[in-house]
Design goal:
Chain lengths: ~270, ~270
């Protein structure tokens, strides 16, 4: 089921700036037990993105009732995607002063692989595609995602996720997830974001949860050597929760990793 | 008039990856005297972009007859935009192995301001929005254009174009055009592209024309100081041809520039 500005349709006007320039933002939200998860955090990031792009906020009441009407149709689990674009109009790239934004809401089935990978772990590889530095466009989820498309096109069926580096060779994230490593002294490290990368809702949630559970956690600049020496690697996003990494294939070698003991309990509390 | 995969419609499927990820390429082509200008060069760059993104080429015969059928409806001048996307499908960012590409062709009216600015020149400003370095995505016209949207949102009605720098402070191009400066010794200089920026069809055409007319021309790394000391500045794209710059407002000052004498003759031969 798809809603465009509240109307059930499969179509969008060709003139939409989302198509022409990727001029918009999106959120991908897990629905579990018929409830959108972390909805307030997702809507906050959506607002942050609109503000960064100077896109007027959609009517949040309208958006809220559209989310509710889609969620109502879900039996248990599903994936909800919200796209907000600057709508049509403007003079080429230059936006209109007061654009009519477009709201697109789509529902997608929950894949069985999501929980399977939580239990069995994933095989991780290294992508050649790099993330460009642009602080103005980092953190939030805008519709300019060619770097992620190119990186995920590098994945073969053997690999469920790939690590992306920035132009300086720092480890930033996966193609669709944030990355955590557990070091020998049981510190959890995750890449510092700022020049590029997505400030994941699940990343924030995990950081808080680790602190609450007295697990030492730091945001830092991380290079490949640290990933190769880590005990555990974990990938997170709003849909998957935490996927532990079984093995990582870097340029030189393939190494196995142990599962961090907190992964299962973190995932468990997501489902309750 | 709009054609999507050869069919007259104003709509595109919501599922199209052009909307979700900016997963596609485009060309903007001048139609003059009922003829698409530099069509072969535009189609070559379109193919180059498809190849860079591993998007299968559209059927070029079909595309050619769609271009012809739109061009037939034009009285004299118009602007033709061609968008090729990876279509729908794939698993999130990850593309399908054999996607069905989407062809979108739209016609737009020729603006009176285009020829006016050729004769009277434009007022140029400096944009704060910078171009990120990503050689994998530079040169061709993909649909991830948020940097251009943000930069052109900085333009007020007083300025018809703005200069964009890269993250290292090098001058790269305008928000929708390439840039040329004429130095005191009558050398024409244009920024070297490679890390970012668009390899303009009109830029290529002007470079050739200058060489044929024995005017000294170089591609180089250009910093702000050189722009401020130049005799003339010119902006080029496929629609505008060459716009001479009357004045440029940098952070420190506003300076006037003389029109390069070759601009009018270059523009004239475009129209014949």
């Amino acid at each position: 089921m798809i809603l465009v500005n509240g109307i059930q349709t499969n179509n969008l006007p060709v003139s939409d700036r989302g198509l022409h320039y990727g001029d918009g933002v999106f959120e991908t939200i897990a629905i579990r037990n018929k409830q959108p998860q972390c909805l307030a955090s997702h809507l906050d990031r959506l607002k942050l993105g609109c503000s960064a792009l100077s896109i007027p906020l959609p009517d949040m009441d309208e958006l809220g009732s559209e989310i509710a009407s889609l969620t109502d149709t879900v039996a248990d689990k599903a994936i909800l995607k919200i796209i907000i674009t600057r709508g049509s109009g403007g003079r080429g790239y230059r936006p209109e002063a007061a654009p009519q934004v477009t709201r697109v809401l789509t529902l997608h089935p929950w894949g069985d692989h999501i929980n399977e990978h939580r239990e069995k772990g994933i095989q991780l590889t290294l992508c050649e595609t790099r993330l460009a530095h642009n602080p103005q466009l980092s953190g939030f989820k805008h519709l300019n995602r060619l770097e992620q498309v190119l990186a995920s096109a590098e994945l073969t069926d053997n690999f469920q996720e790939g690590i992306m580096q920035d132009m300086d060779g720092f480890i930033i994230e996966g193609t669709m997830s944030n990355l955590f490593i557990v070091t020998g002294d049981n510190t959890v490290k995750t890449p510092r974001l700022g020049q590029c990368g997505i400030q994941g809702i699940m990343r924030d949630k995990l950081l808080k949860w680790l602190k609450n559970n007295k697990i030492n956690v730091v945001e830092a600049n991380i290079r490949m050597g640290e990933v190769l020496q880590a005990q555990s690697i974990l990938m997170s996003n709003s849909i998957i929760g935490l996927w532990p990494v079984k093995s990582f294939k870097s340029r030189q070698q393939t190494r196995d990793y142990v599962f961090a003991d907190f992964a299962a309990s973190f995932n468990k509390q997501l489902d309750t």
